[in-house]
Design a protein that fits this description.
The chain has 488 residues and is an alpha/beta fold. It is built from 14 helices and 21 strands.
Length: 488
């Protein structure tokens, strides 16, 4: 073990000099760190944010920008949608998967409208326009979209569908390169800076500094090869992101996504989790992951997704992340999208730019020929297409309940897009925290002086997901962390 790898807590008696100090020291300047900085400075604390890279932003500034909010926000109302706290909670309690914390979900839903207003007060812009097409994010600068499959089966039988993907307005964005997450971060960072928060870049956090009674009072860091001890007079907030790029941690906790990280950045190395673990911090949902299926939803809804047995297993108009999870975890990471020529042409016409549009891997004049080319069991795909077409002709999908607007019989010529090994994801588990963002010891008691938010914690998502949950609970509980740390 090298010096840079030593995450063991540092007794304060070993500190010979403080390189800097503040009331609240925040590790990480992504969405959770920025939200914490805003709230802590507004509460009157002297705030110092430490960032590993050369600028603020983190994964949030590179994200599509969905913030999962609801319960009747002004944006929802302006776009003509009704929602309630109870309705939002009913959806999230199911959509966030087994192990989801109903108390945390209730807390988040109760504060969701106020959180939207807070984001607006921080200068985050939203355009009151609804984007109703399937997609990874709105094609333009629209501000509201379904982002979790709320209007698809089975969720539309559990709670009244309402779009909750709130997207900051951004002109001339480029999906996958420069998207609306930047506008979210810019508003938060500008607000924090105006309120007096300081920042220090190119700083790697290494270990927590503790009093003899276990209270966290600072962070040992390294900058340009030099060790710096930084004192926190009131509290430390950990907000350094997930562990998706720590190969050893992924192999240990979430091996099914090993070698296929996506939608996170290389700085997501689990350092905050490991530092807190060295103090006895408790963890939750470390095996849970979000999984993307690398195909554009405009193609997905126009075809049928089948497994290695030629059978459908998910409604193609659901949240694409749900299709990705089911493919990786329950279908041996094997899927084929069956789509005819007309549907492929429609998908191409709907997409500008054609970001993730994929050409067919195989094309045939008949389903039987296509089945043989793929290597599926004889008559399996034919039986699936026959059953689908019979229902589609009636405008029904009795097996998986795809919405009628996407039901069209599959005709010839027909193609298949090979989606084997076409998944990638990021980790959802992390530190176990209270609703006030206190990091819990394995004993169940909070670790004094230590707070955390964002993807280094186990937030709303357990074994399910909806786009916007990470930026949503990261900013929501980042605020709580900043406020609690300023009062510690």
């Amino acid at each position: 073990m090298t010096l840079a790898d030593d995450i063991r807590p540092i007794p304060i008696s070993e500190v010979t000099e403080w390189a800097d100090e503040a009331d609240v020291v925040i590790a990480g300047y992504g969405v959770a760190g920025a939200a914490a900085a805003v709230e802590a400075t507004r509460a009157g604390a002297d705030v110092l944010v430490l960032e590993r890279t050369g600028s603020w932003g983190g994964a949030a500034s590179m994200a599509g920008g969905f913030i999962y909010l609801g319960g009747g926000t002004d944006l929802q109302k302006a776009c003509g949608f009704e929602d309630s706290v109870d309705n939002m909670a009913a959806f999230l309690n199911v959509a966030m998967g087994p192990g989801a914390d109903s108390q945390r979900i209730a807390d988040y839903c109760e504060g969701s409208v106020a959180h939207f207003n807070w984001l607006v007060s921080c200068g985050v812009p939203f355009k009151a326009e609804f984007f109703g097409e399937p997609g990874w994010e709105p094609m333009g600068d629209q501000g509201l979209m379904y982002s979790g499959g709320e209007n698809s089966y089975p969720f539309n039988t559990i709670a009244a569908p309402a779009p909750r993907g709130h997207v900051p307005q951004m002109q001339n964005k480029k999906q996958g390169e420069s998207s609306a997450g930047y506008m979210l971060m810019k508003g938060l960072v500008d607000t924090a800076t105006a309120a007096g928060a300081r920042s220090l870049y190119d700083v790697r956090v290494q270990a927590l500094i503790v009093e003899s009674d276990g209270r966290v009072v600072g962070i040992r860091t390294r900058r340009y090869g030099t060790t710096m001890d930084i004192r926190a007079r009131r509290g430390v907030v950990l907000a350094t992101g997930s562990f998706a790029y720590n190969e050893a941690m992924v192999a240990r906790y979430a091996p099914r996504i090993a070698g296929r990280p996506a939608a996170s950045i290389e700085q997501h190395d689990g350092q905050a989790i490991r530092m807190a673990q060295a103090l006895g911090a408790d963890l939750a949902h470390m095996d849970a992951t979000e999984v993307a299926l690398f195909i554009d939803p405009q193609q997905l809804v126009r075809g049928i997704l089948v497994n290695e047995r030629g059978q459908r297993y998910v409604a193609e108009d659901t949240y694409p992340g749900r299709a990705g999870q089911l493919t990786l975890y329950h279908q041996n990471n094997t899927a084929y999208l069956i789509i005819d020529g007309d549907a492929q042409d429609e998908a191409m016409a709907s997409l500008t730019p054609q970001l993730m549009l994929r050409p067919p891997t195989w094309v045939a004049d008949t389903v039987a020929d296509l089945e043989a080319e793929i290597g599926l069991p004889p008559t399996s795909l034919q039986a699936t297409v026959d059953a689908y077409n019979e229902g589609a002709a009636r405008g029904e999908d009795p097996l998986l309940h795809k919405k009628a607007q996407w039901l069209k019989p599959i005709k010839s010529p027909v193609g298949a897009i090979d989606l084997r090994e076409s998944t990638g994801g990021f980790t959802l588990g992390g530190l176990h925290t209270t609703l006030d963002a206190e990091v819990l010891h394995v004993s169940g008691e909070p670790i004094p002086g230590l707070f955390a938010a964002g993807r280094c914690t186990a937030g709303l998502a357990a074994w399910g997901y909806a786009s916007g949950v990470s930026l949503g609970d990261g900013s929501f509980y980042g605020r709580r962390a900043g406020r609690a740390a300023s009062q510690a």
